[in-house]
Amino acid sequence: MSLNLKSLISVLNAKWIGSETDVFIDHISIDSRSLQNGSQTLFFALAGVNNDAHLFISDLIENGVQNFVVQYIPEGYADKANFLVVENTLQALQEFAAYYRNLFHFPVIGLTGSNGKTIVKEWLNFLLSPDYNIVRSPKSYNSQVGVPLSVISINEKHNLGIFEAGISTVNEMAKLEKIIKPTIGVLTSIGSAHDEGFENLEEKIKEKLLLFKDASVVIYQKNEKVDHCLNDLNQTLFSWSFSDQNANVFILKKESKNDHTHIEYQYNNEKFSLEIPFNDSASVENAISCLLVLLYFKYDQKVIQSRIEMLYPVRMRLEVKNGINNCSIIDDSYSSDFQSLKIALDFLESQKKKSASKTVILSDIFQSGFTNEELYSKVAQLISDNKINRLIGIGETISSFVAKFPNSIMFSSTADFITAIESLNFQNETILIKGARSFKFEEIVSLLEEKTHETVLEINLDAISHNFNYFKSKLAPNVKMMVMVKAFGYGNGGLEIAKLLEHHKVDYLGVAFADEGISLKNGGIKLPIMVLNPESTSFPSIIQYQLEPEIYSIKGLNAFLKIAREKNLKDFPIHIKIDTGMHRLGFEENTLQELIDTLKGNSTVRVQSILSHLATSDDPKHYDFVNKQIALFEKLSSRLISELNINPIRHILNTSGISNFPNAQYNMVRLGIGLYGVSNDSTEQKYLENVGTLKSIISQVRVIPAGDSVGYGRRFMAEKETKIATIPIGYADGISRLWGNEVGFVTIKNQKAPIVGSVCMDMLMVNVSEIDCKEGDPVIIFGESPTVIEMAVALKTIPYEIMTSISQRVKRVFFR
Predict the structure, then answer these.
(1) Residue 486 appears among annotated catalytic residues
(2) 352 is catalytic
């Protein structure tokens, strides 16, 4: 991409304000934190409900960015850069992408549906790539922002596009259609995702089909509701079905065996067979969608069979894992293309450890659309811009360009790298491992990953971002957000989540004890951190690590002042806790005067905030009590402000308070369990995304006869022949014994498997008589099913206890 900036004035219907007249841009950005931003970047300052990128324009200018699309110019900066001023920057980004798309004329496959879009996209890329130079959406970039960023990656060497489009409500698809302009439409499975955004299923289908309004053909699974909605379109239809013989491709037979599915189908009055290397229904349906695309492209049946036999599970996420020798591993070992490399490098920057060097292990890159000379010049620039300390290249092609990469080591194959791995001395590094499937980089991940047992808690960082933005959208402008990361991030992992929140520019972090804050500071977190439960013995450490203590008693205040004076501190920030009825910690009204007398004229400390805690903000039966707490907080905090002549932050709302008492937001709110996807309000719960999924595997499967027992105490007696699976997780990992003996269940192959007998220290047993499973199969302990809310109800406790009980010996894996 190389476009003259002034040529975009009419495209965006923008007002030009700037000094330069002949500026060319080669990079589009919406992320002020990206190290890839430079002098030829055009930065679109998106101003959404949750974030306003205009606030970071001054930082961007300091870092060399000179070209902006904005809704307003920050005061004092009109003469410091080039600005295209528009009414709506998101709309401008979309208009730019639509303009850019129209510069190219080759087939474009557009995918939409509720499920399977990304998998079908990746499989089509694999199936068609031997014959086409393909540009496709990176990862799951299918939103109102993701689609334009995907399309902008087209270059003149591409001759086929594959882009996915996702929507959550009406009046969204028409915008994406103008950007993608598909010539071939593929409709994947229609499910319940985003049902809340539509009045009914028909409205949802019609909205999705708008993507195909100018497509030459629509490929889909035939069913009555979709057929009815397609009547409004004029396109050629190319359908498949298990039951309707009028479909273009009629599936005559479907037979699963081991890990494969054999199908026989009729097409153009001929019968054909196909082996699909999966046996779950979703994968089979996705593979059939791919089959129809190949048939539409008139591929030979032998080619179709040989390529579909090689389909593979698609990994749609970046994973962060603990590595050997104090390293962190970012696992992106199944894809290697230029656009996703840019995304992975941004993620590397957001997740790097303090004082750790940054290493990239990178394979040859395929399907870039550039010549090798152009491609590896661009890759070298990315590596330089992102301040990568060491590049390890693997592959004949990247190795031939070693001169472009300072501080690099090259290997012609993965095997050669593995042979030399001991000599590479991986220590205290954040390592991005990114390679095409053919390089089998999963072997490298296995060697560098810290070895733990096979039970893991997977943390979805995208879900955390979603939940954060959901609650932030409820706040009035300029209200700050403190996020609680105490108790190891509610069991999910404190440092990694803190890094993500720092990336989101949250205002404050909250921890319970000083050692939690110290750990975050040692991990490189620079955000202000409030310690809610400071013990007087920790005051020296709090001062040393620049943490900020909550002060809740005169005794504690005097103890802190004594140490602060000894260290000659001035204006050290403290947070005053007022007890408004929780009766746990805090100054009560009758102690306020002594507090005022102690603080008045004091220059050693500064009251950074005044806070209190609501006891019943999640229970409508006690809302009157909450209102009394808020009224008392207003009275007492106002008295402090008046008599001390200060202007502190005030905050009283917790997660449920944010939703239920919007008039008490003051200057800041405190987000806790809501960040982790849990709400006490069932209506609100459906808008939150699950963050933590506790997974394990089946260690052993056995069949026991009627009359035999399972586990300690023989608490389960088999009434008939029963198939039992043993799972390597127990109460030492945080699974309550009360969840055993057929109270609770795990999920295996989307089916419930009741826990039988007592939960042991390191294992539990489940009844899998009705489930076709084997040793090594994955097991969901909690996540989507069962949820921590379901578990809490059954165990007569709260989700907090379930989440924070998961042992530290359970490995945490973070992914995006």
Answers:
(1) yes
(2) no
